[in-house]
Here is the input.
Amino acid sequence: MKSVFKSGLLALAVAALPAAAYAHTGVGETAGLFHGFSHPISGLDHILAMVMVGVLAFQLGGRAIWALPATFVLVMAFGGVLGMAGINVPFVETGIALSVIMLGAVVAMNIQASTAVAMAVVGLFAVFHGHAHGAEMPENAGGAAYAAGFMTATALLHAVGLGLGFLIARFGERQGAFVVRSAGGLAAVAGVGILTGLI
Here is the structure.
């Protein structure tokens, strides 16, 4: 049981690797694509939420495997446009923290929602993430390149979540499911820490 729990921690650590890599690149700031790509991978809240979308898509299976990530990326782009345009969306930071808690909890409890319901949930949270990306776009960055950057980074984080799900499933049906659900629980706990300012 202890080794399985360690595997869950390892899975979350792997998910956080993009942020660690970003912090040590030493690359100077540039406009557009780089700024957009770096924004989602520079915050633990974004990383955890987006990876959990991928893990949830894996859990639900079927068309959810592509529908959930696609919904998140497309609705996030809409939220990004709102942020770039300076249109206010209330409780953005709270919404982002709640997305980590809720998505992690759904994965931890292995809630088998319909694909349509899951798409609605991830779409709602995507608005907050997108708005945060758009609102923090540097003045010297081109909007289209910046959006392409954060959409690409987000899609890659979803792919990491899907990959983790498939990788963990190789433990076997029972052990793999336990590790996936443990990873969701850890993400939810981290989300509480983000919400309360402890992380």
